[in-house]
């Protein structure tokens, strides 16, 4: 007789497997993980694992979807707040992402150190594609509100989210590479200056894409960057 599993128990065990996968991705890299590693981490059999995921591909798809849902939760209250203007929502969108990165500094650094390795090339592409689609839709919704309010003047509102996210991903990758270059002996002062300049340049480009007033969006300063430089320096202690 087939074993009956309650829906809540099934969901809980599935999350446990996905959480174990996330821990292994952070410590080893996706390409270095075997199904056996996951079985050992969760202490289940191969048969039990395949009750929840019929393949490694299915596990990857579920892993990406879980990350997507986690990234969505803190942003939805801002997007759906009827009392915020489009400009307030846009800045709130960026502020929320900054607060989350700061609050989870240790995880962000750990992820950054392995995220750009070959061991995570596939999962990185999958996650970035999913997050791109999700956040582009959020920004497009904000842009359409801004056009109705008269504060945004972009010619292509349906593409504004995609264009903005392309710029933000480019900026994020540039920042990460600059910070990680510190481990290769890069000059700290130069790295800080380049991160500040890069942030200002990309924010200027985002404002132009959206057709908002200059300096509508926050520009990072050297003191804020030093927080992350110090975190990189102290990564072994966090």
Automatic annotation (TrEMBL):
Protein name per the record: TetR/AcrR family transcriptional regulator
Annotated region of DNA binding: 34-53
Single GO MF descriptor: DNA binding
Domain HTH tetR-type: 11-71
Alphabetically ordered keywords of this record: DNA-binding, Transcription, Transcription regulation
InterPro entries: Homeodomain-like_sf, HTH_TetR, Tet_transcr_reg_TetR-rel_C_sf
Keyword set includes Transcription regulation: yes
Gene3D superfamilies assigned to the protein according to its UniProt record, in alphabetical order: Tetracycline Repressor, domain 2
Lineage summary: Bacteria, Bacillati, Chloroflexota, Ktedonobacteria, Ktedonobacterales
Presence of keyword Ribosomal protein: no
């Amino acid at each position: 007789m087939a074993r009956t599993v309650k829906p809540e128990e099934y969901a809980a065990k599935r999350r446990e497997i996905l959480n174990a996968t996330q821990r292994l991705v952070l410590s080893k890299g996706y390409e270095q993980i075997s199904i056996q590693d996951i079985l050992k981490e969760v202490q289940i059999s191969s048969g039990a694992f395949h009750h929840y995921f019929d393949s490694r591909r299915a596990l990857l798809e579920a892993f990406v979807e879980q990350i997507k849902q986690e990234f969505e939760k803190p942003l939805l209250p801002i997007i759906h707040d009827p009392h915020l203007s489009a400009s307030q929502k846009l800045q709130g969108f960026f502020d929320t992402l900054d607060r989350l990165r700061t609050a989870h500094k240790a995880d962000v650094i750990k992820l950054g150190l392995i995220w750009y390795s070959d061991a995570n090339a596939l999962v990185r592409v999958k996650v970035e594609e999913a997050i791109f689609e999700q956040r582009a839709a959020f920004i497009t919704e904000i842009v359409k509100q801004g056009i109705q309010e008269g504060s945004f003047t972009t010619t292509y509102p349906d593409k504004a989210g995609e264009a903005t996210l392309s710029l933000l991903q480019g900026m994020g990758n540039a920042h990460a590479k600059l910070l990680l270059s510190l481990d290769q002996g890069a000059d700290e002062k130069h790295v800080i200056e380049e991160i500040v300049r890069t942030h200002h340049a990309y924010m200027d480009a985002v404002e132009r894409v959206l057709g908002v007033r200059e300096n509508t969006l926050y520009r990072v300063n050297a003191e804020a960057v030093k927080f992350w430089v110090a975190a990189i320096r102290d990564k072994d202690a966090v």
